[in-house]
Structure formats: C-alpha cells, structure tokens
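re: ur question from earlier - yeah i can do the single chain one, its not a big deal. heres the input i used so u can compare w yours
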Amino acid sequence: MLAHIVAIQSRYQFVTPLLLLTVMLWLIGLLLFLAGEADPVAIALWALVIACTIFVYTYSYQFLIPSSLKNKHPYRTYAWRILLVLLILVLPVFLLALLITNNPDAAAGISSLNAAVQLFLIVPISWIVFMRTMKGRKELFILKKELDQTHASFDFLRSQINPHFLFNALNTIYGTAIQEKAERTSEGIEKLGDMMRFMLQENMQEKIALSREVDYLNNYISLQKLRTDPNPIIRIDALIEQPVQPVQIAPMLLIPFVENAFKHGISFLEASHIRISLELRDRTLYFDVYNSRHIRVENDPEKNRSGIGLTNVKQRLQLLYPKKHELVIRETAKDFFVHLTIQLT
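and the output i got, formated as tokens:
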C-alpha cells in the first residue's frame, strides 16, 4: 500500500502515508493482543480508543477544520461539529465494547474514557497541528514568492546586460589597444573580459571546477596589479597553484577574501602588502590571505562599498560545507589574516 500511495491518493486524497502507517500499527497491535489472549478490556481499549483517535484526528484535519475556517468563528464552529461527531460515536463504541468485553460497566467506562480522550486531547491537538501546518505553508509560500520575485528581477537584470554586445565591445577596445601598442590597457581589457564571462555564465552554477575559480582569482589579481605595480611601496605576492585533481567548489567563494584584501590593504601613500596562497592537497584546499590594513580617507569612493562581505561568505561556508571547513580570521590594527581550509569533492 505504501508503494502505491500515489495511486491511492489520486482516488482518495485523505489517505496519507502517515495515516496508512498508523492504521498498520493499530492492526499489528490488535493482532498481538488477540494472539496473546489479552484481557478483553485491554483489547477493547486498543481496538476502540485508538481507532477513534485515528478517525477523529484524520476527519478533523482533513475535513472539519478546513471547512470550519470559512466561518466567522472557526474554532467555535469546529468545536460544535466535533462534539456532535463524538456524541454520535458514544453508542457505537459502547455497543462494540460490550460485544468484546461482555461487561456493561466496562463498556460504559470505555465509552466514557474514549469521549474524554477525544474531546480533551485529540480535538485540541488536531487544531494546533493543523494551524501550525498552515502557518508553515503560508511562510513557505511567502518565501517562495519572494524568491521567485528575486529570480525574476535577477533574470531581468541579466537580460539587460547583452553579453554578446559587451564582449564585442571589449574585443573592439582590446583590438584598438593592441594597434596603439597599449599593452597594459589591452591586458586589462582581456582580464576584465574573462572575469565578466565567468560572472555571466559559470557564477550561476551550484558547483564549478576549482581550476575555473583559480582562473578568476588570477584574473582579478592581475587586473589589480595593473594599477598597483607602478607604485614601489606596494607589494603583492600571489602563489596560487593550478589544481591537478578534478575537484569542484562553490563559485565566488574565495574572491571576497581577496577583494577585501585589496580594498583595505592597499594605500598609495603608505607601504602596503598582500600575500595570497592557494594549495590543494588530497582534495583539501588550503587558502591564505595576509594583508596590511589602512584606514580609508573620507573622500575615498571605495570607503562605503562592502562588496559581497565576509559575513555572507561565512554563512555560505556553513551552508555548503558544514563540518568540512575551517575558517580562521585574525586582525590587528595594521594587519589582517585569513586561513581557510575546505574538504572538496
């Protein structure tokens, strides 16, 4: 029956896997009571009270509560309706208990106990469970709607950026720079084109090859070096090994640390340094970023730009690599150090 639950639900929507499982357990328990020749009162309690519990909960959850919510006072309507159902059940439960126990007093006690259990326990539990489920579904619907809107806005934004036009324009400028022998300009345009291609294409994937993430890092660092190399007081050392093993990583996971280093670690007026290293050993990534720290001047346009942010990266690491990463961040007034290890697949 569980294997054919989809077919069963297509005909009887109220039949759920939980209901089937509960009924099976009830039947197994009843068979064990009968096989063990248990006391008739115990058999009657299990057979009738548990059966009524399953019925009242299912009937309330699937039918009574949803229909009662359409009224002005839903809980009051539900209470009156379920009370009527319980009154109707009193006589059948009494007669069945009498049939099993052959004892009028025991049958009356079982019938009264059943009514009390359903009224004071199962009825409020059914209401609470249903309302909490509805609240969860409502929250999930709102989140899904917001997510759909976010995706729609992002898709619209991506549609406004015509990659073919963008790359054609960059290629044109790149060709012009080559003709004019502007080597540094042409190199910068080439790196920027590669980075934009990565952002528009591979950045949307759940996982990418580590080699592509490394290429993006190298392009970013090379592009930054174009503006810092002429300054002798700025030193940038990057030892980034191209991975040999075919491992994958979540895109844009490493760049925020490098971006943060260039944002806060570079000053054209004071001695500055950035050291970046990346190594892959036995599918474990070792990534270090060490940079100087400088206070931005008030009129610096980069002062209030936070980029992706390290907080966001920490959350992504917790979500994507739980118990498979270690992130150590140390900072002083003049230095900032990041050590990250990730077990990749």
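The chain has three domains: 39-157, 161-200, 207-296+303-343. not sure if urs matches, ping me
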